[in-house]
Amino acid sequence: MAIISKGFGGRRRESVPGLPPGQYLTHDFPVLSAGPTPRIPLDRWRFTIQTETGDSKSWNWDEFMALPAEDYTVDIHCVTKWSKLGTTWRGVSLDTLMEQVESAADYTMVHSFGGYTTNVPMEDLLDGKAWIAYKFDGEDLAPEHGGPARLVVPHLYFWKSAKWVNGIQLMNEDEPGFWEAAGYHMYGDPWLEQRYQGD
Q1: CATH superfamily membership of 44-192
Q2: C-alpha span between 101 and 89 (Å, rounded)
Q3: What's the sign of the alpha-carbon dihedral 64, 65, 66, 69?
Q4: How many CA atoms lie within 13 A of 123 on its CB side?
Q5: Could you tell me which Gene3D superfamilies the record lists for this protein (predicted)?
């Protein structure tokens, strides 16, 4: 049984600045998940970065909330062909988190509560390109959108922005995550329409 279908049946592409090829503009926020929505109590939430040598650094929710946070506005693009422009978030930059970790790794595997994983090159998480977000549009991030916290990597298709994130494993070699192992593209650049292997 096939897990992926190339026939997403997207809408006709609108002529809108900032819209990648093959995308249509949405003003709502569609909810798409690989499984049931986990409900994570804040007193059980923990985010851990594990290095390629096995060392780790963790933050509980209170420690994470004490870190410097940023407000930012970005466009997001889903592999199912919707794009939402000008979304506003608040979160902690991966630059801030990685300052506390010693690593020479080039690759990462992002892990979530519920077992979801996705691979993201290290360079795509640094230099102001990615955040662990806990607010959307001025409100606490709803569980169906990945709350209490999710990764946001806006320059890649949104399946790379893992919901319910709880850690990042740093790696010397690239490996596929959940959707990548099922045939999605290993990188996922929306401007190059890298939806599936071979795109």
Answers
A1: Oxidoreductase, molybdopterin-binding domain (3.90.420.10)
A2: 24
A3: positive
A4: 3
A5: Oxidoreductase, molybdopterin-binding domain (3.90.420.10)
pLDDT digits (tens, 9 = 90+) for 26-72: 988 877 766 678 889 999 999 999 999 999 999 999 999 999 999 99
Nearest CA to 148 out of 64, 36, 50, 27 is that of: 64
DSSP 184: B
Q: Is residue 125 a contact partner of residue 109, using CB atoms and an 8 Å limit? A: no
User: How is residue 186 written in tokens?
Assistant: 């290993």
Question: Quick check: 52 and 172 in contact, CB under 8 A?
Answer: yes
Q: What is the pTM of this model?
A: 0.89
The Cα–Cα gap between 71 and 75 comes to 14
Amino acid at position 160, single letter: K
Both structure tokens of 126: 């640094």
- Across the range 162-189, mean pLDDT stands at 97
Pair of tokens at residue 28:
């709502």
Every domain of the chain and the residues it spans: 44-192
The three-class DSSP label of residue 180 is helix
